[in-house]
């Protein structure tokens, strides 16, 4: 169990996550469908599309998109002034997103933005909009690489058989509804003996459909069918089955329909549980074949000592967690599988994966497929399954990434592909017809068709299976940056790089180096002077993906900028490096997208001062646009033979030098390693595992207590992790490096909780943890949530001037029974009066009508027929009331008494509340 401690005290605790009390702020929101927010006090408005709602009982920040936001795997995030506010919950309309707020986070909601997968959703930003046709350069695909000697994309000798199984649904921790146990199996026919097993898991997608209607509900409503996402990898399965593999693709709609509200980690632990529940069944069926479903009985027996896991999008993060949980057991209260581990995961393929936790399992080999035109996980954060493994464990496992030029996110799954899917589907890379993207637009020379893309994906899944499971090192050059291609994947251009395996002696910017003639830059930092990729970048870099913090220690690269031929950048290691036994020096380096012909001479120096120029590299930029993550490091190798001829001591290398061969330019060095061929067996090290939990406590009416963030450290040995404590008032984090040991209390984050009797919001104190060296992390996010247990005050409306003559204003006072610590808001819509004439658009101030609804008074019509006419009232913390004012004009016309009537609305649905407030008034002619 994850431990949690609460200690009651009568004075302030010695330590707290945030020592300052939350400030008081009033914010103004947008009424439903209104063009301009109406305010009782004239306060300023939030940006278009944004509003604050639910102040009465549950304050929320709401954003409504002007077009549908497709359900995808990347999370929508709300940011303010560059800091992460949180992950909102999606509404049922596909456009609205709501984030619960506490008082602290309502302070200073400046610079509000909605982001997803590294792209901004609510407005233009650098890296989020395609280049204009007038300025765009039409990028060309990279030249084809030489063919590899072995092509894993060729079908094998076996025919295949396909069938499905459906088992009893399962319950997973934190999920209200059961999750299905359904899968499709493709098996080889005529294969003898036990066969390795490849398990596929799809990502987060719509769950239910009926005709053209598609939803994210779970379970599906009456008349709706489940979206068969699990059938989308049949092409991949058939290729592997023809080569002798058993394959199974499992359904996860029950997780997709619940993970945004039920899982703080985006559903990674739930997906891991589901994977391991299926593997456990396969282990049972291997021992007792007669109990297996028909398709499994008719297939060869599974060899569970040789398992490949393949995950797409959030399925990729689930696969990573399943591999981790198979080696280092998770806390039982967080896990949905509690049996023995009777399988061995030999490798993983992660297709366009999410990596919310940024804690890849270090000792299980992996290949990550990065789609160059991904419109969902568009920051290509899956690169961190490579970069994030450096120095965490022994480094024996190969972790590679292959960048597929012109591939989108969805088309690796045929059930997410228009023209092939049973349910409605789409190209996730949205292309503006008026501003087509030069790289990823439908007619761009670099864009792949759906068939070309899926074929390439199948080939590289098969390559990983052949390397990691079958141990055929002949396919390694397709995955590890050796610069070879599989002809069966043509015309796709697939580029690769890797860390681990037989690399050693690395120049790691994170490991302590000094730089001359260049700049040691930060991957994530709010300061433009420190960050690696500035605002002048045309696109983004997968290497510099942000986490939930605005600053991260231990993530660096080396930025080069020169203005003359022969400019030198020298990188000096803190301690001498050994490149003994290596054949080449492998560098991961990138230059700006679409650039050509950047050249560097590469030189090494040993501790005695001997120098050797190894050779020259030529770097071309990837095809890229403002909307792609094309600042990606290709792998370049130079032989070390010149070092041996020059008498360089490869056991004691001191520095690496890059000499520019062009008059000006820019480049970024990710890292450099000694490389030699081969793929050693990866054995999991005995490491401690860290899991954070979340403790929810009631605030109480008095006194002070100190609660501690739940932390569990299990496993063996000791290691280092970096702990980030997020300030609930500012969203900024503080961090510290902590050495952890199983059973220890090395990570101790106290939170001070003060009781009172005043109504306010819940408060969340959040903590993140990331592995650094000699440790692994499962549940990376936790904290303490303080639930406000005081009753909400009552709200009433009192007429101040409810019957007036023309030229005066109707006024009502909305008041609370007592002051509170949270904004209390209400929104009112106009309804026709019960009897008599209704006030019209000509009876109120024209400027007021435009400000409130964005509408003109012409043509004259009753106020209840004005689209977008709402009155919004906001009572700031510490106050007890505010006025609603309706300005009436004097028109000099003889008219009967006219009336207006308002009804309080549900701010989420816009429907009248049954017991809501109902201010009403009337106007008579002036004497």
What is the strand and helix layout of this fold?
Blueprint: E1 3-9, E2 50-53, E3 60-64, E4 76-80, E5 83-86, E6 89-90, E7 96-100, H1 103-106, E8 112-116, E9 119-120, E10 159-170, E11 179-189, E12 195-201, E13 208-210, E14 213-215, E15 225-226, H2 234-242, E16 246-250, H3 253-256, H4 259-262, H5 268-287, H6 294-297, E17 302-312, H7 314-327, E18 345-351, E19 366-371, H8 384-387, E20 399-404, H9 450-469, E21 494-499, E22 504-507, E23 513-516, E24 519-522, E25 556-562, E26 568-577, E27 584-590, E28 598-606, E29 611-619, E30 634-639, H10 641-645, E31 653-660, E32 665-675, E33 688-692, E34 694-698, E35 704-715, E36 719-726, E37 733-740, E38 750-754, E39 763-773, E40 776-777, E41 781-787, E42 795-801, E43 803-805, E44 809-816, E45 824-831, H11 846-853, E46 870-875, E47 881-887, E48 898-905, E49 920-924
Parallel strand pairs: 12-16, 12-17, 17-18, 18-19, 19-20, 33-40, 34-41, 43-49
Antiparallel strand pairs: 1-35, 2-3, 3-7, 4-5, 4-8, 6-7, 8-9, 10-11, 11-16, 13-14, 13-15, 20-21, 22-32, 23-26, 24-25, 25-32, 26-31, 27-30, 27-32, 28-29, 28-31, 33-35, 35-38, 36-37, 36-39, 39-41, 42-44, 44-47, 45-46, 45-48, 48-49
Helix pairs in contact: 2-9, 5-7
């Amino acid at each position: 169990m994850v431990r949690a401690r609460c200690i009651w005290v009568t004075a302030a605790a010695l330590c707290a996550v945030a020592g300052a009390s939350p400030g008081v702020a009033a914010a103004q929101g947008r009424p439903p469908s209104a063009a301009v927010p109406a305010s009782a006090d004239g306060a300023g408005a939030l940006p278009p599309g944004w509003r604050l709602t639910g102040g009465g009982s549950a304050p929320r920040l709401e954003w409504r998109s002007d077009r549908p936001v497709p359900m995808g795997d990347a999370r929508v995030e709300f940011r303010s002034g560059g800091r992460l506010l949180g992950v909102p919950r999606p509404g049922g309309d596909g456009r609205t997103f709501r984030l619960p707020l506490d008082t602290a986070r309502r302070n200073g909601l400046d610079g509000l933005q909605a982001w997803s997968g590294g792209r901004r959703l609510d407005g233009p930003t650098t890296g989020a909009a395609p280049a204009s046709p007038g300025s765009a350069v039409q990028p060309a695909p990279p030249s084809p690489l030489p063919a590899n000697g072995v092509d894993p994309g060729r079908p094998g000798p076996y025919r295949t058989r396909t069938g499905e199984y459906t088992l009893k649904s399962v319950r997973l921790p934190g999920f209200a509804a059961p999750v299905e146990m359904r899968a499709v199996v493709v098996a080889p026919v005529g294969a003898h003996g036990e066969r390795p097993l490849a398990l596929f898991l799809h990502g987060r997608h719509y769950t239910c459909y009926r005709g053209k209607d598609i939803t994210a509900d779970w379970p599906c409503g009456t008349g709706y069918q489940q979206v068969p996402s699990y059938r989308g990898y049949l092409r991949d399965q058939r290729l592997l089955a023809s080569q002798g593999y058993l394959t199974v693709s499992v359904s996860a709609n029950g997780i997709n329909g619940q993970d945004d509200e039920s899982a703080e980690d985006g559903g990674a632990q739930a997906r891991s549980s589901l994977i391991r529940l299926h593997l456990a069944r396969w282990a049972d069926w291997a021992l007792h074949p007669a109990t297996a479903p028909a398709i499994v009985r008719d297939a060869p027996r599974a060899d569970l000592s040789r398992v490949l896991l393949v995950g797409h999008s959030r399925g990729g993060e689930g696969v990573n967690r399943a591999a981790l949980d198979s080696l280092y057991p998770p806390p039982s209260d967080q896990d949905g599988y509690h049996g023995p581990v009777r399988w061995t995961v030999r490798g993983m393929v992660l297709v366009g994966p999410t990596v919310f936790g940024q804690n890849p399992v270090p000792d299980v080999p992996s290949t990550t497929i990065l789609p160059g035109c991904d419109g969902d996980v568009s920051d290509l954060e899956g690169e961190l399954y490579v970069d994030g493994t450096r120095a965490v464990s022994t480094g024996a496992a190969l972790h590679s990434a292959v960048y597929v030029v012109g591939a989108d996110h969805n088309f690796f799954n045929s059930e997410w592909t228009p023209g092939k899917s049973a349910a409605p589907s789409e190209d996730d890379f949205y292309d503006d017809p008026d501003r087509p993207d030069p790289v990823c637009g439908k007619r761009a020379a670099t864009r792949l068709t759906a068939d070309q893309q899926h074929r390439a994906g199948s080939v590289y899944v098969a390559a990983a299976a052949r390397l990691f499971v079958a141990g055929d090192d002949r396919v390694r050059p397709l995955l590890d940056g050796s610069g070879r291609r599989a002809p069966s994947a043509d015309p796709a251009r697939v580029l690769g790089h890797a860390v681990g395996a037989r690399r050693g002696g690395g120049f790691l910017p994170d490991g302590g180096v000094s730089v001359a003639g260049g700049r040691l830059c930060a991957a994530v930092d709010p300061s433009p002077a420190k960050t690696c990729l500035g605002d002048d970048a045309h696109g983004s870099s997968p290497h510099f993906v942000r986490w939930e913090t605005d600053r991260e220690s231990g993530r660096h690269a080396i930025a080069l900028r020169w203005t003359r031929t022969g400019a030198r950048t020298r990188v000096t290691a803190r301690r001498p490096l050994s490149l003994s036994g290596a054949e080449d020096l492998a560098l991961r380096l990138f230059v700006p997208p679409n650039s050509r012909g950047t050249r560097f001479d590469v030189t090494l120096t040993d501790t005695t001062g001997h120098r050797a120029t190894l050779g020259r590299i030529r770097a071309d930029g990837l095809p890229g646009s403002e909307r792609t993550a094309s600042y990606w490091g290709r792998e370049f190798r130079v032989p070390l033979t010149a070092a041996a001829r020059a008498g360089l001591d490869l056991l004691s290398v001191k520095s690496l030098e890059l000499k520019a061969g062009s008059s000006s330019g820019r480049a970024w060095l990710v890292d450099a390693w000694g490389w030699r061929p081969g793929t050693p067996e990866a054995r999991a090290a005995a490491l401690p595992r860290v899991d954070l939990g979340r403790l929810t406590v009631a605030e109480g009416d008095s006194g002070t207590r100190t609660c501690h963030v739940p932390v569990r450290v299990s496993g063996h040995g000791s290691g280092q992790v970096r702990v980030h404590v997020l300030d609930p008032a500012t969203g900024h984090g503080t961090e510290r490096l902590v050495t952890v040991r199983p059973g220890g209390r090395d990570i101790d984050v106290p939170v001070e909780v003060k009781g009172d009797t005043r109504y306010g919001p819940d408060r969340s104190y959040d903590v993140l943890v990331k592995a650094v060296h000699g440790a692994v992390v499962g549940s990376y996010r936790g904290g303490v949530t303080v639930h406000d247990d005081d009753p909400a005050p009552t709200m009433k409306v009192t007429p101040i001037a409810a019957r007036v003559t023309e030229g005066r204003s109707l006024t009502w006072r909305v008041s609370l029974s007592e002051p509170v610590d949270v904004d209390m808001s209400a929104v009112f819509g106009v309804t026709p009066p019960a009897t008599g004439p209704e006030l019209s658009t000509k009876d109120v101030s024209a400027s007021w009508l435009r400000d409130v609804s964005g509408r003109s008074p012409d043509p004259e019509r009753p106020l209840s027929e004005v689209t977008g006419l709402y009155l919004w009232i906001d009572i700031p913390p510490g106050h007890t009331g505010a006025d609603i004012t309706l300005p009436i004009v004097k028109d000099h016309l003889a008219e009967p008494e006219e009336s207006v009537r308002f009804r309080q609305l549900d701010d989420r649905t816009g429907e009248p509340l049954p017991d809501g407030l109902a201010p009403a008034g009337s106007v008579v002619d002036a004497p």
